[in-house]
Amino acid sequence: xxxxxxxxxxxxxxxxxxxxxVINARIEEAGLRIIAQKRIQMDxxxxxxxxxxxxxxxxxxxxxxxMTSGPVVVQVLEGENAVPLYRQVMGATNPAxxxxxxxxxxxxxxxxxxxxxxSDSPENAQREISFFFSEIEIVG
Length: 140
Ligand code: ATP
Ligand code: MG
Fold this sequence. Notes:
It contains seven helices and four strands, in the order E-H-H-E-H-H-E-H-H-E-H. The protein is an alpha+beta fold and about 140 residues long.
């Protein structure tokens, strides 16, 4: 087994409700290590570039508006199988379908304002990590 990394975003609905610390506790309790972290305000062009894969989806415009509606905390998480492990800790996209004890079940406001983002594959994780972080900002 080897350590892998994933990109996490604590979304504006969660930073607005002061949930950064409780979400970080869930991450660490799951055995994931926060090896980089910063609080930023995304602008429209950043959000559109980050979510480019979703540009044909009906919710793309609304999603970019939401992701720029307040600060986000972007993070690199490291652990064994970090990508699927963090997806488990997050729960399903729609909080109504998320399992008990997951971040989205406990904190999400809606399918859109669902508190956290996590990469969906190791390849996308690498792309998303280098979108936000330079090498010297990641200390494993
Ligand atoms: P994320 O990529 O944020 O980790 P995900 O992989 O579970 O979430 P995606 O299908 O990649 O879900 O959708 C990206 C984001 O777009 C969701 O997290 C949510 O904020 C928003 N979204 C997804 N589906 C809808 C929808 N039907 N209506 C509104 N917003 C949506
Ligand atoms: Mg996704």
